[in-house]
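One record is kept unedited as follows:
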Amino acid sequence: MNPDSIKNAPSSPMELDEAKARELEERFDSEIRFRPLSQVAGRLVGALLIALSIFHYYTAGFGLLPEMVHRGIHLSFVLGLVFLVFPFSRKGYDQPAISSLLRPLGISIIDWLLAIIAVVAVLHVPLIPLDDLAFRVGNPTQTDVILGGLLILILLEATRRSVGWPLPIIAVLFMTYAIFGPSMPGILVHPGATVPQLVNHLYLTTQGIYGIALGVVATYVFHFVLFGVFATRIGLGQLFLDCAAWIAGRYAGGPAKVSIFGSALFGMISGSSVANTVTVGSLTIPAMIRLGYQRHFAAAVESASSTGGQITPPIMGAAAFLMIEFLNLPYTTIILAAIVPAFMHFFGVLVQVHFEAKRTGLRGLRPEEMPDLKEAFKRDWPTVIPLIVLVGILLAGYTPYLAAFWGITLCVLVGLLNPRKRMSILEVFEGLRDGAKYALAVGAAAATVGIVVGVVTLTGVGFKISFIVTSTAAEMATWVGAILPVALFAPQALTLLFTLIMTGVVCILMGCGIPTTANYIIMATIAAPALGVLGVEPIVAHFFVFYYGVLADITPPVALAAYAAAGMAGADPFRTGNTAFRLGLGKVLVPFVFVFSPSLLLVTANFTWFAFFVAFIGCTVGIGCLGAALSGFMLVRTRIWEQILLIVAAILLVVPEIYSSLIGGLLIMPVLIRQFTGLKSAASAQ
């Protein structure tokens, strides 16, 4: 028998086809979709991507370079490659890679020039001696201004190509504000900056392009993305899917519950919503459709579940690593704080899926459709070793990039030595290449976000926006307080509530056009201080804007994860997005809970177990009530008055206060009585 046929033979009823998953991801995720390349250009790009991965792998294990040098090398690779792989317009994706005098290796000569200029402009700053650079900050040379201006323009174009228009437009608006400060109205007025002053701040300091956002991508995010790629290649993703199918597949609506558990487990090694969606969804979406779920609902379940990957420890998304720098906290603290909110997200989706399955009478997986968990662990147990070691190193207090270094190293060793699923040397290099693909769009976006952050630090506009938001919220609280009893709704609590609502809405709107990482950085810079003014702990404020930014992946009109799932399911994208948003409504409520009861995050200053359990139990029951109301089913179909009571009860239960929880519990009682009565009547009739 051919050894390759043994290696590729299906070993599970839900066999993950990694090649198909990568193809789907490239089709639906515009950030890693490259234009057609000639054979020579493809090899050149592949070699550069591999070199970028090797650079980060080596520095993670043997020591990072000086800050500006490390970030400069990373950004030079990123911008140079962006112009080689992303065309000027969408028409370029359909243009064949034909070489000519004006298109060397099938790539426009203009793109070659932009790539070269980008590399030169980026590396100019790291090559300046530190003593000389310190003297030139605030006193740039003409060369500094010219190269800095060129880099800003080229960076905006690179971001437009790889991410889209919204983020560059936001950056241009902020730069315009910086220059025309004296002409701004009211509190937004400021002395203004000349073009050389602006270029100096954005180009020569670590407050702009070379700032914290780029630094986090270059020192944390890249390594964990690379780890996730290799962990999937060696079979850890398949083991997670088999575990999920064994845990949840046998119950009503089995494939949908497998989707939730599988996405939660897969999210532990993948911080990308779209990657999670297409990888797990390539198996679960067809299974859900075969079982009887409507196409849009199947796609919505997968996208809503997969969005939780960005908030699931230990990998999470890029924003988790940014929190380390913003808050100066160890990564273990971020992981602990994320556990309960991540659970609430998946629990909220699971509740609605369960009620939907019961309402429509959908079955679970049959025994022959279930994986053999014993055989799965016998086959794939070595794949767990890298994840255990990575988490262990993190918990021991070492740097995240060192943990990722050993995780990647062990993934490669397991892949090379595991006789049941052995990787070839060629596949190792393919993993290095594919891991670097994810760095291009997020790297360009992070550098562009540096422009926004630079303007904020230069003009102080963040504090002004915080004042505007809190003042508006206070006025709204005064109006509402005149109607509602002050004893039940204190003015301070109402002000905080309206500030949270406005912040959440802005996060979702911003997330409709820019990546979640960029959204988090901007909102953490502008909106989080507003919450801090009202006494919210920094980690709580940052988690609030982080979670609402992630919610944008399933919020129409631009719901990337939902649209990817809709494309796989052959469903209407907008209808899928609306359904996914409904399934993810638990994530809408939870951030409000941990702002008013920070104990839910486990690591806050005034944590108490009593406050934690009051918030946890109330939140869990409240999300269950909300799921029943939105699904139209609990034990039997719900009536309109029951749905209204359940929604009101859900809101009262998630308020982390014992009296409101008791009132919410009382509102549930008539619903439960009617549900049990209806269940008995249905059983008697049957």
Notes: The CA atoms of residues 159 and 165 lie 8 Å apart. The two ends are 55 Å apart (CA to CA).
